[in-house]
Amino acid sequence: MLLERKIGVKYQKPKGTADILPQEAQLWDEVEAKSREVFRRYRYGEIRVPLFESYDLYARSSGDTSDIVTKEMYDFNDKGGRHMALRPEGTAGVVRAYVENKLYGPEFPKPYRVYYMGPMFRYERPQSGRQREFHQIGVEAFGSDSPLLDAETIQLGVDLLHSVGVHDLRLAINTLGDPETRQAYHQALVDYFTPHKAELSEDSQIRLAKNPLRILDSKDPQDKPLVADAPSILDYLTPAAQAHFSVVKESLDKLGIAYVVDPTMVRGLDYYNHTIFEIMTTSPAFGNKELTVLAGGRYDGLVEQVGGPALPGVGFGLGTERLMLLVQHNRPAEEAAPLNVYIASLSEPAGAEALVLAHAIREAGYTVDMDFLNRKAKSQFKTANRENAQLVITLGEDELAHSAASIKQMATGQQIQVPFAEVTTEFHKIYQQLVEEGK
Ligand code: ATP
Ligand code: MG
């Protein structure tokens, strides 16, 4: 059967996705550039890993009772029957790359520090600050179990936010301890929640059997009262876990970074241990609600779990959309940069000449636009004004006959005729003068 060709069918972007249009993208660019500059100072190098990996990698690293794995995964079987998933977060892929490329080898620095920026995919209910395709900027540092590195990573996160003008931050930290701590705390949670099992939400009843720590992260209001009175992990820390956490806190004190210890905080991913942290902010951009913009922690068992040596790691992920909401709120979009030159062509041969001239001027480093709609002269000049052109070149019969361009400075109305070959040199002169005049 022939498919009926429909003309004019309207398509809409998939639910939970967003188009980032040029004006906004400019601000994204700026935020990313500032982040890169902060990363450079901390000796982080960029890593670019695939947007999809085997489903198993995420299931294994995030934990098969995490929300991400049980509810939010964009997974699919590819045409070869492999079970794949779009990445829900950055760490798993980076750890996979760290192991696969043996970046723990003696020829590489330790800690080995990388950052990434890019889209992540989670099947969630879209709402303000929550999308299905969203972006993260994140860092990972491998190969050191020093609590000083935890503190440095938190400082990096704070610096990053400050560098893009986001202040008024609230830092919450907690520790999930070492495996021994976790085991003791696990038992304490089972003992505490089991007599109240019937009062828990359906999800949390399952969590109780599989991973009781997850109950603390439940967003179901039904679980809140019980969670509020749950035992605190801080009472179950081994001396080693206690010591690690103490150094983190002392280091933050020394750095002058304010924090609160929130013993009920757990992270949405199973791979964390020892230090975990979240940076939150309340802003009119979030309807005056407090939202987490940056979250991370230490994951000492993950590299081994993904098939590598037993090497520790620590990192964070920052929600770029949430960050952009804050940045945009603090600073309204700037006006588009002025156009250096608009070339108005008054005939067809002049148009062809304009194309050549435009190329030469762009090569010299200036921004150029010209007419592509056969507009009348008057309308071309109007366009030049709308684009905020600093100079307008007119190519008419007279100019073509003399192989010269009329250049008009829009600010002063001053006009000169310059041979084609000298146009770029003349521009350099004009712009030099504008700079000297401080314009
Ligand atoms: P939440 O508890 O809000 O669901 P999470 O624990 O799932 O957060 P992480 O996996 O730690 O979040 O991701 C780090 C950051 O990425 C979050 O603090 C947030 O800023 C951002 N983020 C997470 N999910 C989304 C999403 N669906 N849309 C936009 N940003 C998101
Ligand atoms: Mg989530």
Summarize the amount of helix as a percent range.
Answer: 25-40%
Q: Give the overall shape.
A: elongated
Radius of gyration: 29 Å
How can the largest sheet be summarized?
8 strands, mixed
Bound molecules: adenosine-5'-triphosphate, magnesium ion
CATH superfamily of the largest domain: Bira Bifunctional Protein, Domain 2
- SS-based class: alpha+beta
Q: Give the neighbour order of strands across the main sheet.
A: 1-5-6-11-10-9-7-8
What is the chains' assembly state? single chain
Average the pLDDT over all residues and give the rounded result: 93
EC number: 6.1.1.21
Subcellular location: Cytoplasm
Keywords: Aminoacyl-tRNA synthetase, ATP-binding, Cytoplasm, Ligase, Nucleotide-binding, Protein biosynthesis
Organism: Schleiferilactobacillus harbinensis DSM 16991
